[in-house]
Amino acid sequence: MTDFILACRTLFSRITARLDALNAEVADVRRYRVIEDGSAARRDSVRDDPVTARLAALRGVAGARLELFTGLGFAAVLEGTACLLWWIALVPQETPPVTNRRDPLPAVTTDVPDVTAADAPPAPVMTKPESEVTKLRRDIEAGLLRPTVASIRQHLGCSQAKAAALRRQVIEPTS
Length: 175
Known about the structure:
Blueprint: H1 2-48, H2 50-59, H3 63-90, H4 132-142, H5 149-156, H6 160-171
């Protein structure tokens, strides 16, 4: 029986030695996988964005967090540029007001009836277009506006300098 116990002890020691060796190999394999996963992650981050990876290493920040902040920064710049361009596009442009309105010309016809000088209608009288000063005097006398620069600006849709010059001409007639 002592031989049997001795055989069991040697067998037990062999099995434990073998288990210790296998456990050591498992630990080595796990350590190797961790190293390999870290290397793969570093390779992927360098391949994807080398600048972000280097900045993250210099600043001691996680690469994902730095990528998030740079992405938000670029989005803010892009959105700001879009807002600025929309603002520029939608700002009302200063256009000169329409002051001389003319009636549309009658349509031209090719068939002209035979009209004698006696049957001809009277020729239209060509009148000189009304100047802004004359128009302003007429509108002030009619009570449509007051003789102030602001009122003239609003009535004609012109600049303050032009309205002031027109006001001087209306108030102090030289002719």
